[in-house]
Amino acid sequence: MSHEARPVRQLWVEDEKGRSRLPDPVRTAAVRAVLITSVTLIQATIAFFCSVTGSWLAFPLTVSTVAGTVVATWSVLDVWVTRQVWRQRNGVVSEPSSVARQARRERRREERAARAAAKKRAG
Questions:
Q1: Concatenated DSSP letters of 44-83
Q2: Structure pTM?
C-alpha cells in the first residue's frame, strides 16, 4: 500500500458575499433588539401557560410581558434610527443630492488644497 500525498484542503474557505455586513453600531443595536424580543416572546409564552394553569405568577408575568413588548418595540425602532443616522453621517445614501456626500466632496477639496499648499511650502 503506497502512501500518496493527498492534496491539502483548506478547512475554511471564504465565499464571496453579496452584501456587505452591517456597520458596528447598527449590528450592535440589531443584536440587542433580537435578544430583547426573544426574551419577551419566551416571557409571553410562560405567562400564557401560567394563566392557563391558574398560577399566581400569571398576573405579574402578564404585566411584565406588556412592559417587555414596549421595550422590544423601542429596541426595534432603535435599530431603524441607528441605521438611518449611520447612513446620513457616513454618506451611504446613493442620491446625488446627499448632504453627506456633498460634505465629503468639500472636505476632500479642502484636503487637496492643504496638501498642495504644504507641497508648495516644502518645495
A1: HHHHHHHHHHT-TTHHHHHHHHHHHHHHHHHHHHHHHHHH
A2: 0.59
